[in-house]
Amino acid sequence: MICKRIQITDFRNIRSADVRFDDGVNVLVGANAQGKTNLLEAIFYAAIGKSFRTTHDEDMIRFGSELCEISMDFADSRREQNLTVRLMRGKRRRIEHNRVRLAKVSEVVGLFRTVLFCPEHLALVKEGPAERRGFLDVAISQLYPNYLRSLQSYHQILKQRNQLIRDAENDRATFRATIELWSLQLAREAAVISQYRYRYLTLLQPAIRACFAEMTNGRETPDAVYESSLHLEPEAFDDPAAVEAVYRERLMSHHDREIAAGSTLWGVHKDDIRIDLNEKPARLFASQGQQRSIALAMKLAEGEICRNICGEIPAFLLDDVFSELDATRRAYLAEKIRGRQVIITSCEPISTAGKIIRVNNGEYIG
Ligand SMILES: Nc1ncnc2c1ncn2[C@@H]1O[C@H](COP(=O)(O)OP(=O)(O)OP(=O)(O)O)[C@@H](O)[C@H]1O
Ligand SMILES: [Mg+2]
What we know:
It is a single chain. By secondary structure, this protein is α/β, with parallel strands linked by helices. The chain is 42% helix and 23% strand. The protein folds into two domains: 1-113 and 312-366, Rossmann fold (3-Layer(aba) Sandwich); 121-311, Up-down Bundle (Glutathione S-transferase Yfyf (Class Pi), Chain A, domain 2). It has a six-stranded antiparallel sheet, with helices on one face. A six-stranded mixed sheet has the order 8-12-13-3-14-15, sandwiched between helices. β14 (355-360) and β15 (363-365) form a beta hairpin. 41% of the residues are buried. Adenosine-5'-triphosphate binds next to α1.
């Protein structure tokens, strides 16, 4: 995957920009608050249909403007393509692939495959389950559009079901009449999502181990295992019909507990990845450096899996990570990203050879 060129109007602090990238390493260099991360955000948004910094699309429109546009020319191993996104205040966004309008964001994801790595990802091991679910969601969605469709539908059903639970005290009749329907639908999507997540982790596990072993000379062994709110053995998730039955049973028979809690207590919105180092929870026992190495290994593994499954090497977007890593990990990362497209941001020039793009107040020269 190669991002060839990006043209931007009124996105964040970028009034107007036209940036061309090399096939290898590209380094965006500039002082703080000049627009380095903004450019990565624009690429990521065009690829994934959402930002890694905000859930409000309008935040990305330049202050004082009514609309912004990102047009990205990219190539996979077969052909050149274009994705254009336009965001408008108070209106629905418009996304075009090769000038043809797309109806749903699930049609965009997977066209330009990318792996984003920013300082927050270094805390993937230490942070809460939501961050780890987010990692899985972005990685799996880019490989399987059906996953994203199930996930979107799941969250919609979950919202309705939670509302129903919250209203149950005041409206028992509606609750009794409809809870079964929502529970069945939720169980069906949960089983699909669980299976994807379980399978993805069976691929991730050996890939993390391999990266981690290279980084640390193989003294320690990390594990990354799918952990669901159902507390079943991970292998159980390979049988979606059986898993759906378990979700159904939980969601149908503990209504009083759910009403007391005010929300849905079982489902993939409670999933986590259990990360161990030498068979102990890494969050509690691994050192800060080990946790960061595992996180780095997870991100590199995401790239490896993408290449193995779809035959395309994803473009890496690295936001400020070199400054956060020690010399050994920095050297390792530099070695691993050779031979693929990487777009790196940095306040200081970095030694990795490649195209330098200077960033100053939303303008890009290079
Ligand atoms: N909607 C917006 N309209 C205009 N400017 C914005 C908008 N959103 C953010 N900005 C500005 O963008 C700038 C931040 O840009 P960015 O995050 O890309 O900086 P950076 O170059 O990555 O800096 P750092 O090195 O600190 O990470 C800030 O000055 C911020 O005020
Ligand atoms: Mg930044």
